[in-house]
Write a structure and sequence with these properties.
Length: about 500
């Protein structure tokens, strides 16, 4: 099964939202409309996805997707865009408008249809569009159907004549045979269209997909409805967009944050690098004697740093903060750590000059405000106290672009080279800065991704980015292909500064 997403046109009603980017890149809870569609399709087992681009096409560049371009998007319409991807019309195909949101169940209902050409339709369309202050019926793509759900008419400016009527939802499923029927009818009309003999005198390049379907229905080609009651939303105007933002129950069923910390907490301790001793031991070495001293671990997660410190110095007083109570919930209460939920930029619950040491293992890259975070750390440290940071690094400067592109599909994060961490320390007034570079060898890409709490679609993108990386990046990471996995070396910096 393939999917073709039609995203060539320029939106005229959402200019203030889309600005200078394609409509499909409008953001809903930090995910683009296109990313949400692709994630949902992947959950339905559809990973052969094509996007037809047009307006600002260079901005649509999600890896792992096939692209066809409609460079005449300003003078053409949906049907023309579809046949820009004609090379993909050779299998079972889902044809999907680019300005709709849909749930997994919506797609599965349409996939379950055994008909050659199946068309998604919403019968309670008035309720679905009730948020719009003004509704131009003639501008909607509607359809009428009989008692056997066979389409009689479909398109804009439709006279219902009291028939069963519904709203076309912008999703068409064609079997192999259905695709051949679609292509033959398109070719028939295109060859005769110079005189505009068909499609109600509409220039075929200006036609909607429903214009072709209506022509086919009138010629007796069987088209069948799949009734959809809910789980669908069109975003065609400002009111639609505001509804998408306000209907949080619907959107949260579709949108997946890039890293789900509650999910990640269940498997975090299975990640190989988390349990490697090299970075932990170096942090302990930098820490020095902590007997009867106070230590704070920010972004403590499942408490690996605190446990390592306590094993070395059991009589220390250990504190930890994290934004995820689920992550800290994996820490054994018998260890006696003082834990609280907080961002690293907000240490207001601690007094000035309170701690002898503050540690941060793989957390600064999550900071929303690095300057504020380091000021807070500096404030709560005693004079002479140490701040010890451990961060992952790109293996060299050439690999920075790859590193940043890869992590874009996991989380929003800062990228640090060793120099960057050192500069942060200096700017925050820490002195006597020392560092150690550590390379963890033989790290498994699959181990990391399968335990990282990242949506499946994003996992697939990150994998493809590694397999398709340029040779200099592969060399810098010493990537070795082992069956369907990549074994590689990861670089970390441990940096310590004194207040």
């Amino acid at each position: 099964m393939k999917a073709i997403l039609l995203n060539a046109g320029k939106s005229s009603d959402l200019t203030w939202i889309t600005a200078d980017k394609p409509k499909c890149l409008m953001e809903i809870e930090d995910n683009s409309l296109l990313e949400i569609q692709i994630n949902t399709l992947y959950k339905c087992g559809i990973d052969d996805i094509t996007v037809v681009r047009g307006y600002k096409k260079e901005k649509i560049n999600i890896p792992g997707i096939k692209y066809y371009d409609n460079d005449n998007y300003a003078e053409t319409n949906v049907l023309y865009s579809l046949f820009c991807a004609r090379n993909e019309l050779n299998d079972e195909v889902l044809i999907i408008y680019g300005d709709i949101l849909f749930e997994e169940d919506t797609i599965r209902r349409i996939l379950d249809s055994k008909k050659d050409i199946s068309i998604g339709v919403m019968t309670n369309w008035k309720e679905n569009l009730s948020h719009r202050a003004a509704l131009d019926y003639n501008d909607l793509e509607m359809l009428t159907f009989d008692a056997e759900n066979r389409v009689n008419r479909i398109g804009k400016n439709l006279d219902s004549n009291n028939e069963n009527i519904g709203l076309f939802i912008g999703i068409i499923k064609c079997s192999n045979n259905g695709i051949e029927i679609l292509k033959k009818n398109y070719d028939r009309i295109k060859s005769a269209n110079e005189g505009k003999l068909y499609l109600k005198n509409i220039d075929i390049e200006k036609a909607w997909a429903t214009d072709l379907l209506d022509e086919m229905a009138e010629f007796g080609v069987p088209l069948h409805c799949v009734i959809i009651e809910r789980g669908w939303l069109e975003i065609n105007c400002e009111e639609d967009y505001e509804r998408a933002l306000s209907d949080t129950k619907f959107i949260r069923r579709l949108v997946k944050i890039k890293t789900d910390w509650a999910t990640r907490s269940e498997t975090y301790n299975n990640i190989a690098w988390v349990n490697r001793d090299e970075t932990l031991n170096e942090m302990v070495n930098f820490a020095g004697d902590l007997e009867n001293k106070k230590a704070l671990d920010i972004g403590t997660g499942t408490g690996k740093v605190l446990k390592t410190l306590k094993d070395k110095y059991p009589n220390g007083n250990y504190y930890g903060i994290d934004i995820s109570k689920e992550m800290m919930g994996k820490i054994d209460p018998s260890l006696g750590f003082n834990l609280s939920v907080s961002k690293i930029e907000n240490l207001a619950s601690f007094e000035d000059n309170f701690f002898d040491i503050v540690t941060a293992r793989m957390v600064l890259h999550h900071s929303e405000d690095l300057e504020k975070a380091l000021k807070e750390v500096y404030r709560v440290l005693k004079p002479g106290g140490k701040f010890i940071v451990c961060e992952g690094n790109p293996p060299d400067r050439h690999s920075v672009a790859f590193y940043e592109e890869m992590f874009k599909y996991k989380e929003d994060r800062h990228t640090f080279l060793l120099d960057d961490i050192t500069n942060l320390m200096v700017n925050a007034k820490f002195k006597d800065i020392t560092s150690k570079t550590i390379v963890l060898n033989n790290m498994s890409l699959n181990n990391w991704l399968s335990n990282a709490g990242v949506p499946f679609r994003n996992v697939d993108i990150i994998r493809k980015l590694h397999f398709n990386a340029d040779m200099l990046v592969k060399k810098a990471y010493d990537m070795q292909m082992v069956q369907d996995d990549i074994i590689m070396n990861w670089k970390f910096s441990v940096v310590a500064g004194v207040k």
